[in-house]
Design brief:
15% strand; alpha/beta; 35% helix; disordered C terminus; globular
């Protein structure tokens, strides 16, 4: 019997982020829905290849293997497919050994409205329009960007990296920066160094991940040989003196990160290619780039960084 979903950290993911559906999508675009259904039926027992979010999801679910009594996490599949064409997705889930049992198949409809119903602290999709709608309605969501899929079986650790402003925290300070200068921003943040930020779109996810860290802290106390599987990092363009308000916010929320990088405008890829996160969340597309193209990146289309500038012609 499944544990109550209200007691879990839930991530909702669409099939196109979890698996490589490029061939299936090509059939749909070129030959239509009927041919798409027939293609899926014909290839029903052929497992889909891993998608960009697969390594992240697999390691996220492994938390339950470490804590079988609590079973603190769950992944829910939200799909635009019909339940018939979704059969192949579930065959692939079973083939790859993913413990995913809850799903919604909506036959062409956007699934974002069901994010709260499943108690999801994150919705991952490759469909930027669905994600933007979710963010507009105040739901935590991110667009999974194309990248190489790297799933090192010998590396069980789950590494998750976050930008700060516009992701963990709201965009109030980013608005100050956009409206003025770096000096204005530093002065604004220094004068408010002891005032915590308001939560951003992924604040709930960050807090609940911190709770998982506390489970691991207790596991280490009970067994010094326990091997941690979760590492959380913050990678922000801030530097001193604006760093202090970040620390104030984390302390006020009662959360922590294993690694925090204050880069002062340095290119984030320089850190990410060493850290090798299984997912990096940022609100600015310009930061979601890596030279090797092998870092799973998620765009959070929230706040002032994603406001389309109005030109005189508009």
């Amino acid at each position: 019997m499944s544990y109550p979903i209200e007691q879990k950290l839930v991530i909702a993911v669409v099939s196109s982020a979890l698996f490589d559906l490029s061939n299936s999508d090509r059939v749909f675009r070129e030959r239509g829905e009927k041919a798409y259904r027939e293609y899926q039926e014909t290839h029903l027992t052929k497992p889909l290849r891993k998608g960009v979010a697969f390594p992240f999801v697999k390691r996220f679910l492994s938390v339950n293997q470490k804590f079988p009594k609590q079973c603190p996490v769950e992944v829910v599949l939200l799909s635009r497919n019909s339940v018939i064409t979704g059969k192949r997705v579930f065959h692939s889930i079973h083939h790859h050994g993913l413990d995913i049992s809850r799903a919604a198949f909506l036959e062409g409809k956007s699934p974002y409205a069901y994010i709260p119903a499943f108690n999801a602290s994150l919705f991952l999709s490759a469909n930027a329009s669905d994600v933007s709608q979710a963010i507009d309605y105040g739901h935590p969501a991110g667009t999974v960007l194309p990248s190489k899929v790297v799933d090192n079986e010998a590396d069980p650790e789950l590494r998750i990296a976050f930008d700060f402003d516009g992701v963990i925290a709201d965009d109030a300070s980013e608005r100050v920066f956009k409206a003025g200068s770096l000096e204005d921003f530093q002065e604004h943040e220094t004068s408010r160094s002891q005032i915590p930020h308001s939560p951003g779109p992924l604040a709930d996810l960050f807090r609940k991940l911190s709770h998982l860290q506390k489970l691991e802290d207790q596991a280490v106390m009970d067994d010094p040989d326990y091997r941690r599987i979760l590492r959380i990092a913050i990678v922000t363009a801030r530097n001193a003196p604006s760093h202090e308000r970040v620390i104030t916010t984390l302390e006020h929320w009662g959360v922590d990160a294993n690694e925090v990088f204050f880069l002062g405008g340095m290119k984030k890829d320089r850190i990410l290619k060493v850290l090798k996160p299984h997912m990096f969340f940022d609100d600015q597309r310009s930061h979601l780039q890596s030279d090797a193209g092998d870092i799973p990146m998620v765009h959070i289309p929230f706040g002032v960084a994603n406001v389309h500038p109005i030109t005189p012609s508009e």
